[in-house]
Specification:
heterodimer, A: about 240 residues, alpha/beta, Rossmann fold, 4-stranded antiparallel β-sheet, 10 strands, about 30% helix, about 25% strand, globular, B: about 300 residues, mainly alpha, 11 helices, about 80% helix
Chain lengths: ~240, ~300
């Protein structure tokens, strides 16, 4: 049984089809990198899986169970957590309150405030600080930590390195490696191809709402993905949904 | 000594204004909704207490045990039935729909109780006019002191609830970003329902305070709404302790104004309200100009 299965998902922004009938499956503990240019539909796909964007059609299954029309908070309680683009921490609340709030979903598991702070040691000294006062890297760590506090089965990470200094990106990614070892299924939206190929077991490239390239990270070359990224290989490879 | 007495009376009156403004400020702070039915709902609670006291001879304080949960239920229904739906229509729609609700409540109360003024004062023995004499010229009304204490306890309780409980955290998160709150497992619809229920409980307490300290009739709501609105704005909309300070500033202004002339009571209150709005407008314009000047200097 797949940890996450997406069948023929269509999502729209008004009349514009942002995601055009994509399908994929993920096994438990797998890390999938979703790459593509701005406007390719990556963020909308992640938000649709998390219930933060309405589905026009299609289905999302978690551990074989259809999530149906479950709203975002219900999906979070069932094990889907999204770290949204731009972090979107509750700026007027402390780091600890941000974490504690997410811990209230009632799912048991590895992640508690203590384990999150161990994974992101830069937050330890800042746990009482207002989220608004954190640096970009600290905010990203807090946003990931907040999602982990829900003890998710599937973690959706949207542009975790966006706007961060190289040092902060390194720190965030070294923490992500700890997460990957913990067995969480991860979908990672990333603009940095090298990094995506390094951390993910599988890569999917999106263009204009469709999957245009898919394969094991170890078997795909940077050139192959770049060509798909810019739409230079329009013929979809076998196994990729039209 | 007269001036000192007027200031003390103003502070005590400010306690009532803080109490009536609390729910308005809470709803604005959490849901960004200006509830124009606020005053009418306070009057509805006052009539609820009056009916229980008059018909069943229940002490108004005991009757709160019945009326406050009823107000909480009204709050929940108000959120689910009116505010949630009207909020989808934009910022102005909830203002119009609560304005309509206020008219409906006022006319239903008029239909049921007529235009006679009522009060809960006869049901609390001598509490409404008992006082402690601090000096020969200065007295502190027991009921006024109780109302001020109730305001402090209520605002402090709300502050504790917001800062130290899971539902308080969820309310703050929903107020800040309802969509993201959903992503951390918070049911924003439920939380908004709870927040409105809490706001209506405070409205119930305010209705009790009004009915104990003065008379009321079905159309007394709009005046209470104006006082609540002024206290909320003076104290900084959405700030709980600011509401107490706003209430006290309004109360002291009215009390001092009344000392000058009988019409001064209202005029001084409205004057302070307008002055504070103007100060805010000019201060923010000044801040904008300073920022613009700094940017211009940097770019040159």
């Amino acid at each position: 049984m797949s940890a996450l299965q997406v069948d023929n998902l269509v999502a729209r922004h008004g009349l514009l089809q942002a995601v055009r009938g994509v399908s994929f499956r993920m096994e438990k503990g797998e890390t999938l990198a979703l790459v593509g240019a701005n406007g390719a539909g990556k963020t909308t796909l992640l938000r649709a899986i998390a219930g933060a964007h309405p589905l026009h059609s299609g289905r999302v299954f978690l551990d074989g169970a259809d999530l149906g029309a479950a709203r975002a908070h219900e999906r979070t309680r069932r094990g889907v957590a999204l770290v949204p683009e731009g972090r979107r921490l509750f700026a007027g609340m402390s780091v600890e309150d941000n974490l504690r709030l997410a811990g209230g979903v009632g799912r048991s598991g590895l992640w508690t405030i203590d384990t999150v702070l161990e994974t992101f040691p830069n937050l330890k000294a800042r746990r009482k600080a207002l989220a608004a006062s954190l640096s970009g890297g600290e905010q990203q760590a807090a946003a990931i930590g907040r999602a982990l506090m829900t003890n998710p089965e599937v973690l959706l990470l949207d542009e975790v390195s966006l706007g961060l200094s190289p040092v902060a990106v390194e720190r965030v990614y070294s923490s992500l490696e700890t997460l990957m070892r913990s067995g969480v299924t991860i979908v990672l939206v990333e603009q940095d191809l090298n990094r995506a190929l390094r951390v993910a077991s599988r890569v999917i490239c999106m263009l204009e709402g469709r999957f245009v390239a898919e394969g094991k990270a170890s078997e795909m070359t940077r050139e192959e993905i770049t060509a798909a990224y810019f739409g230079l290989n329009r013929a979809a490879p076998a196994g990729v949904s039209p | 000594m007269i001036l000192v007495n007027q200031i003390i009376q103003g502070i005590l009156l400010g306690g009532y204004y803080a109490l009536i403004a609390c729910g308005l400020s809470f709803m604005f702070g959490v849901m960004r909704i200006i509830n124009l039915a606020h005053g009418a709902l306070a009057i509805l609670a006052a009539y609820g207490l009056f009916v229980l006291a008059d018909t069943y001879e229940i002490s108004p304080f005991l009757a709160l045990i019945v009326v406050l949960p009823a107000m909480a239920a009204i709050g929940w229904l108000l959120q689910r039935g009116i505010l949630e739906r009207s909020a989808r229509g934009g910022v102005l729609t909830p203002i119009l729909s609560t304005f309509g609700l206020a008219i409906v409540i006022e006319n239903l109360l008029f239909q049921r109780f007529g235009a006679d003024t009522r009060s809960l004062a006869p049901f609390v023995d001598t509490l409404s006019y008992d006082s402690w004499s601090l000096t020969e010229d200065i007295g502190v009304g027991k009921l006024a002191a109780l109302i001020l204490l109730a305001a402090v306890v209520e605002l402090g309780g709300l502050q504790l609830l917001l800062q130290h409980t899971q539902i308080g955290c969820a309310i703050r998160a929903t107020a800040e970003d309802a969509d993201t709150a959903g992503l951390v497992g918070v049911d924003a619809r439920f939380v908004k329902g709870v927040a409105t229920a809490i706001a209506m409980v405070t409205v119930g307490v305010a209705g009790a305070a009004l009915a104990l300290r003065a008379t009321f009739d079905p159309y007394a709501g709009p005046m209470q709404l104006i006082f609540a609105f002024e206290a909320t704005v003076i104290g900084g909309a959405g700030s709980l302790w600011g509401t107490l300070i706003g209430g006290i500033i309004l109360g002291v202004a009215q009390s001092l104004g009344a000392q000058v002339s009988p019409q001064g009571f209202f005029l001084a209150g409205h004057g302070v309200f307008l002055a504070i709005i103007l100060i805010r407008v000019f201060a923010s314009e000044g801040a904008l100009q300073a920022r613009f000047a700094a940017l211009t200097r940097r770019s040159s």
